[in-house]
Design goal:
By secondary structure, the protein is α/β, with parallel strands linked by helices. Helices cover 36% and strands 18% of the residues. The strands form two sheets. The protein has a six-stranded parallel β-sheet. It has a six-stranded mixed β-sheet with strand order 7-8-9-10-12-11, sandwiched between helices. The chain binds adenosine monophosphate and manganese (II) ion (2 copies).
Length: 325
C-alpha cells in the first residue's frame, strides 16, 4: 500500500516560511478570486517583513480581479535572478498541473502546497491542506495569524476576496459562523467589502448578461428535474460579444432551479470542453469530477473532458447517474 504523504502542521509551515527569503506565489489557470487573492495576500504580508516575492500565473488577471493590490506584478515570467532556494507556494490547486504548462519544473524541496480542496494530491514538500476551510485565503489567514503578522488593509482585501469568491458572497453552505467571524475581522482590518462586491458580483459587462441569456435559453432539465445543464460555445460568445471570463456565474443559475440536485455548464471554446459542476447537497460533485480527471469540492467541481461537447454531455450525465443522481 502506498503511504499517504503526511500533512504539514501550521508550525512547520511557519518555520519554513521564516527560513526562506524569496517566494513565488503560484496561482491556477483560469484564475479566480481565491487562488489570486491567497497568493497576493500572503505575498503582500511577506513583503512587509522584507521577503522577496514574485507572482506566477499563466493566464492574465481577469478583468474583475484587477482591483486587487499587486496585480501589476503578476506574470507568467520568472525573473532570471530568482534565487535557487526560492519557495514556490502553490495556492488553491488540488494538483500541481493546475498551474499550467508555462511554469518551469520546480524541485519538490522548494514547494509549499496551500489548499482547501477535497482529494488534494499532496504534491508539495510541505502540504498545508485544510479541507474544512471555505477558501485557500482562509488557510493563509491562519498562517499569518500564527506568524503574528499584521493584517493590513490590502492583505485583508485580498483575503476577504478569497472568502467571498468561494462562498459566492456568503451564500454557499460553506459559509460557517467561523467564516463570518473571519470576514468581520478582515473588514475591521480595512478590507473593502463594497469594492469586492462591486467587482465580483455586480459590474457585469452587458455582454456577460447577454451570454447568460443565451445560455439559459439553451438550458435542459433532465432526470425528472434533478439535473439542469447548458453549454456555451464560440458562436454564443461571438453573438453576445463575450469571452470566457463572462461565463463565471452561469452554472449557479442552473443550480438555483427548484428541485435541481446537480447542474453542469459545458464550456466548449478555447479548444477544449471544460465542465463546471455544482451540487445542491446530495450529490458529491468532487467525486463525480474525479472520475473524469477533474476535482474540486463536494458542492462545486470542474474538469476538462477528453472529447467533444456531445461526448462530454453524455459522459458527465453517465458519471452523475453512477453517483446516484
Ligand atoms: P469552476 O467551475 O471552474 O468554478 O470550478 C469549481 C471548482 O472545481 C474549483 O474549486 C476548481 O478548483 C475545481 N476545478 C475546476 N476545474 C478543475 C480541473 N480541471 N481539475 C481539477 N479541479 C478543477
Ligand atoms: Mn480556485
Ligand atoms: Mn478555493
Amino acid at each position: 500500500m502506498i503511504e499517504e504523504v503526511r500533512l504539514a502542521t501550521t508550525e512547520e509551515v511557519v518555520a519554513e516560511i521564516r527560513r526562506r527569503s524569496s517566494f513565488v506565489m503560484v496561482s491556477h489557470v483560469k484564475p479566480d478570486g481565491d487562488t489570486l487573492g491567497a497568493g497576493l495576500g500572503l505575498g503582500i504580508a511577506l513583503k512587509a517583513i522584507g521577503k522577496r516575492v514574485h507572482y506566477f500565473q499563466q493566464d492574465p488577471v481577469p478583468r474583475n480581479l484587477r482591483f486587487l493590490p499587486d496585480t501589476d506584478f503578476v506574470s507568467r515570467e520568472l525573473p532570471a535572478d530568482l534565487p535557487g532556494d526560492a519557495l514556490f507556494v502553490f495556492g488553491d490547486m488540488s494538483s500541481a498541473s493546475r498551474a499550467g504548462e508555462y511554469l518551469p519544473p520546480v524541485e519538490r524541496k522548494n514547494t509549499l502546497n496551500i489548499d482547501h480542496h477535497l482529494g488534494n494530491e499532496r504534491f508539495g514538500e510541505l502540504n498545508y491542506i485544510l479541507d474544512s476551510e471555505a477558501s485557500t485565503g482562509s488557510c493563509v489567514l491562519v498562517l499569518l495569524q500564527a506568524m503574528g503578522l499584521a493584517i493590513t488593509a490590502p492583505v485583508a482585501t485580498c483575503l476577504l476576496t478569497c472568502i467571498m469568491t468561494d462562498t459566492g458572497g456568503f451564500i454557499h453552505s460553506n459559509t460557517t459562523p467561523s467564516v463570518l467571524r473571519s470576514s468581520a475581522m478582515l473588514m475591521e482590518a480595512g478590507a473593502d467589502k463594497v469594492e469586492i462586491t462591486e467587482n465580483i458580483f455586480a459590474n457585469k459587462r452587458f455582454a456577460a448578461q447577454r451570454l447568460l441569456g443565451l445560455a439559459l435559453s439553451a438550458a435542459v432539465l433532465e432526470e425528472d428535474g434533478r439535473y439542469c445543464w447548458t453549454y456555451v460555445d464560440d458562436g454564443m460568445l461571438r453573438s453576445a460579444g463575450a469571452d470566457g471570463e463572462d461565463t463565471e456565474e452561469i452554472v449557479n443559475h442552473l443550480r438555483a432551479v427548484e428541485g435541481v440536485e446537480a447542474a453542469a455548464l459545458f464550456k466548449d471554446f478555447d479548444g477544449a470542453v471544460r465542465v463546471s459542476l455544482r451540487s445542491s447537497g446530495r450529490i458529491n460533485v468532487q467525486a463525480v469530477a474525479a472520475t473524469i480527471g477533474g476535482g474540486g469540492h463536494f458542492m462545486a467541481s470542474g474538469l476538462t473532458y477528453p472529447g467533444d461537447l456531445q461526448a462530454a454531455v453524455a459522459g458527465v450525465r453517465e458519471a452523475l447517474r453512477n453517483a446516484g443522481l
